[in-house]
Structure formats: structure tokens, C-alpha cells
């Protein structure tokens, strides 16, 4: 049975953790990468994604839930998830391999994806688009071997330059795009996403642990532009409006449930 937690975690908080013997982290401008190898019979939680995620399952399973959709990546599969959403995840190791769970996670900013798409010189295909921000893809033997070749970089992150990490990631993306038209289409769809309406960003993240900087980033604006556009719509400051809405939300919870004030 999966061990779950109701606490919503921001992916930036995960990256803020120091590397451990179970989790190793690489960082550079526009990209962060995590290589995790643990033993677990099941773990679950809720995660707020501030960046796009590309996750490769080497051993075990990783299930992602968003709304009514459920996507499970098994051994030798990968999952691409768009940013600005809250997901529920369940992950477990392989029973016949001492419950080992091994995966690599890459968090990609828009600028890096945009650079890759320009280099790839991609021409849109006739693939039918989907509104689901999550997609699962197969990994072939060549890709699995390439991921194994990246492991030494996680062992000595302090000796790896940003330029080298960037080159290796671009090589990885080119390898994926060369053998998977649907994956390349998904990346192009991410690139074409328009600046979001402030109302949509606010409503989607009202109860999430996000800052004004986060909300501005998710809406595709600078902080000053976000504050200016917000005031033009709501005729008040973002902090005051959000505080009042959260208090109203907590009041509704108290009226409809048996939770305490602290829990609400």
C-alpha cells in the first residue's frame, strides 16, 4: 500500500533539498535534473509543478493523476508533464528487484525548450492535439543506454559545467525527437502555449502554496506586469484579494466539514 501525504509540495522545494545518497541533483540555468534511486513498496503525494517535467522510469512505476486522468509510466517508459498544474503521484519499486525505484527527472524551463525547437527546425504534423497536459512514451534500448551514460554526471555535480549539462540535455532531446514524432509534437505544443489569463492562473492556484513571483511566472508576466494587470481586473492588490478569497474558502470548509480552524 502506498504511503501518502496530503501536504502539497512545490517542485522548487524538492530541488532546494541537498543531494543525498538516494537523490542526486544537477542544476543549471533553465534546467534542473534529479536522479533518484530508492527502495519503496509505495509512496504518494501531491506536487505543484512550476516547470515542465520529463521523467524517465528506469526501474519501478510512477503514476500521475491530474483531474480524472491517470497516467502510469512503467520500467523503460517516460512521462512528459506541462507546467503550472498540481498532480497527485504514486511511485513504487519493483517487487522482484528488492522494491527498487530508479528514475531520472528533468525540469525544463520554457527558454530551453524554445531553444531546442529552434535548433530542431520542427514542422508541425497532422497529429490530433490533446488538451491533456500529461503524456506517456516508450523508451527504446538506445535511450535507456544514454540515460545510463548520464549517471556519472550526477556523482560529481560540482565538476560539471552548465555548458556540458546543456549539451547533454539537447542531445537527449534530439535523440527522443528523432525516434518519437508524438513526443516532438508535445514539445511544440508546450512552446506554442499562449500567455495565460490572470483569472485562470489565480483560480487554478488559489489553494496552492505559491508566491506572487510564482503566479507572475505562471501567467507569463514579469512581477510588475502581473501586479498592474491584476489591479486593472480586480481593482485591488493581489495579496489583499488572495488573502480574502482564502479566508472565504476556509470559512466554507468550516461550514461544510468537521475540520478545526487550524486544519481549515
UniProtKB/TrEMBL annotation:
GO terms for molecular function: DNA-binding transcription factor activity; sequence-specific DNA binding. The keyword Transmembrane does not apply. Keywords: DNA-binding, Transcription, Transcription regulation. This is AraC family transcriptional regulator. It comes from Paenibacillus soyae. InterPro entries: AraC_XylS_family_regulators, ExsA-like_N, Homeodomain-like_sf, HTH_AraC. The lineage of its organism: Bacteria, Bacillati, Bacillota, Bacilli, Bacillales. PROSITE patterns: HTH_ARAC_FAMILY_2. Residues 196-264 form the HTH araC/xylS-type domain.
